[in-house]
Amino acid sequence: MSAMPAGARRGALLFIFVVVVLDMLAFGIIIPVLPKLVEQFLGGNTVSAARVYGLFGMAWAAMQFVFSPLLGALSDRFGRRPLILLSCFGLGIDFIFMALAPTLSWLFVGRIVSGMTASSFSMASAYIADVTPPEKRAGAYGLLGAGFGIGFIFGPALGGVLGHSDPRLPFVVAGTLAVLNALYGYFVLPESLPRERRLPRLNWARANPVGALRLLRSHPELSGLATVYFLFQFAHYVLPSTAILYSSYRYGWDARALGLMMAATGACSIVVQAVLVRPTVARLGERRTLLVGLSFAVLGFAGFGLAPSGAWFLAAVPVFALAGLVNPGLQALMTARVGRDEQGQLQGANASLMGIAGLFAPGAFTQVFAYFISPAALHWPGAPMLLAAALTAVAAVLVGAAARAAPVVTDSAG
């Protein structure tokens, strides 16, 4: 079956773009303040906050690992729209719950619920695969990444300003935005998966993490591409798990400065995703685009870790922003290798890989950070960033074997 007409596809992509912008705006608002709120509950102890915040990230990722395959399989059976709406509404309620959390334990429960419901970005990726032909997917994923970046321009900046006086206020605003996003989607978001292309019944063997990951071994080259995806996602966790504590500790940045730094990161990301992805893929192809993105990710991570001052850290931001070429190229390569009725399962499997990375990466990076700022160790606070650079370099080496030319798959085998 062919993709939807160009005009209808542009309208559908606009809808999903707005949904992603609003969702990422809600996520972005809490990023500058959640680590500081944890630190506040712990009496201002940065070392303890780094360790506990790592556990928060691991719990969130564990929920993603368990629930993302289920949500992906449900979307293959019932369509993308209801799952996107469920995710947005669930996040809204959860953010408000976290705003009211009286103790660190309650905040932890809220983070668990957030991991269970945070699937809108995965569902948006499956949505794009539904409505876009394979040769146009990298550009469409670039648009999705631009929406991600827009949310991160205004979200962290707003969160930093709001959280400067009250670290709980950004959670209230984020919850409100997420609920409004669900209402917006309810009235304007069309379904992307027609009934005739849905699975006739829910296959529970595909709706669990093991079954979802099995898909990555069932198609040629998917396992290699999945390894690249896993390593990059593992490395990328260094930013949400340690960047706030790292830059606050090393450069003395407050919540406002942290929010503005993340806004600058989002601005650079938008330029890459909205302006550079399409021409780069058209000129270099998806595989070389992926390699270029990974190379700049290595340089960016190394720049963050070696930056002797806040100014040097900011200088590395536009370099790292070119890592935005990674996901569009990688998603285009992966979605072209599975059938149309497996796109939700693929995104669920990818989310499970991210969940596995998230189970270990936040703890690993925060423990490395805590160790290298402790009195007993060599003082080397940039060590987590350099570890991320090394992992990304390994991923770049693996691309050569993982992304050989392969025929595009238009329908699943069974």
TrEMBL record:
GO cellular component: membrane
Every Major facilitator superfamily (MFS) profile domain range: 12-407
GO molecular function: transmembrane transporter activity
The keyword ATP-binding appears for this protein: no
InterPro entries: MFS, MFS_dom, MFS_trans_sf, Sugar_transporter_CS, Tet-R_TetA/multi-R_MdtG-like
Membrane topology type: Multi-pass membrane protein
Spans traversing the lipid bilayer: 12-33, 53-71, 83-102, 108-129, 141-163, 169-189, 222-246, 258-277, 289-306, 312-330, 351-373, 385-406
UniProt entry keywords in alphabetical sequence: Membrane, Transmembrane, Transmembrane helix, Transport
Pfam families referenced in this protein's UniProt entry, alphabetically: MFS_1
Subcellular location: Membrane
Family statement drawn from the similarity comment of this UniProt entry: Belongs to the major facilitator superfamily. TCR/Tet family.
General function of this protein: Resistance to tetracycline by an active tetracycline efflux. This is an energy-dependent process that decreases the accumulation of the antibiotic in whole cells. This protein functions as a metal-tetracycline/H(+) antiporter.
Name of the protein this chain belongs to: TCR/Tet family MFS transporter
Organism: Solimonas marina
Lineage of origin: Bacteria, Pseudomonadati, Pseudomonadota, Gammaproteobacteria, Nevskiales
